[in-house]
Amino acid sequence: MYISKISIEGFRNFPQNEILFNDGVNVIIGHNNSGKTSLIKAISLVINSEAPRRLELDDFSKSTTLENLQRLPPSVSISLTFKKSTDEPPNSEDLVTVSNWLTVLSADYEAKLTYKFFLPIEKHDAYIDSLQECDTKDKAWQVIKQDYLRFYTYKIYGGDPSLLQTADSESLQ
């Protein structure tokens, strides 16, 4: 099994990106501040059960507009897609590990884990009211940091993320 794709939305310098990986060794190269460390951190948020999963204000992508911030609270979504390796036996332990996260049910299986960091829905009305008074993005981000970041929570979903099926911690380890 290998990570075939990562989809990142709203995280650091990844406003909305998709990165494909090959079966086998992949090398990540790039200029300073191009996102190499952010990419590794994004993968870690999903699969490293020992890493902290709460984010700070600087972990949000700042490429949004004031109008978007006033309309919806910022969130982060990171999806990892796993595929069967070419040399993997048909009934491998990898398949057992990802069986609850399958999105493609065939011999060449595909599974998905999705990390989401978001403001709970019951806080949205207060958030929208608070941000209507902000006239700059900097002020909006300051309100988010001071008044709302502490209420943010994270979830890791297995399989189709629209089904909101939480991935069990035992399988994640």
Radius of gyration: 18 Å
* Biggest β-sheet strands, sense, barrel: 6 strands, antiparallel
Overall structural class, as computed from helix and strand content, comes to alpha+beta
Strand content: 15-25%
Mean pLDDT: 92
| Count of distinct structural domains | 1
What's the overall geometry? Answer: elongated
Q: What is the count of β-strands?
A: 6
Instruction: Spell out the helices and strands N to C.
Output: EEHHEHEEHHEH
In short:
With 173 residues, the protein is α+β, with helices and mostly antiparallel strands. The chain has helices spanning 36-47, 66-71, 93-98, 124-131, 137-148, 169-172; strands at residues 2-11, 14-20, 76-83, 102-104, 110-118, 153-158. A hairpin with a 2-residue loop joins strand 1 (2-11) and strand 2.
Characterization of the model:
It is a single chain. Helices cover 28% and strands 25% of the residues. The chain is an alpha+beta fold. The protein has one domain. Strands 1, 2, 3, 4, 5 and 6 form a six-stranded antiparallel sheet that branches. The longest helix is centred in the first third of the chain and has 12 residues, at 36-47. The two termini are 16 Å apart. 21% of the residues are buried.
What attributes characterize this protein structure?
6 strands; 173 residues; 6 helices; alpha+beta
SSE map:
Blueprint: E1 2-11, E2 14-20, H1 36-47, H2 66-71, E3 76-83, H3 93-98, E4 102-104, E5 110-118, H4 124-131, H5 137-148, E6 153-158, H6 169-172
Antiparallel strand pairs: 1-2, 1-3, 3-5, 4-5, 5-6
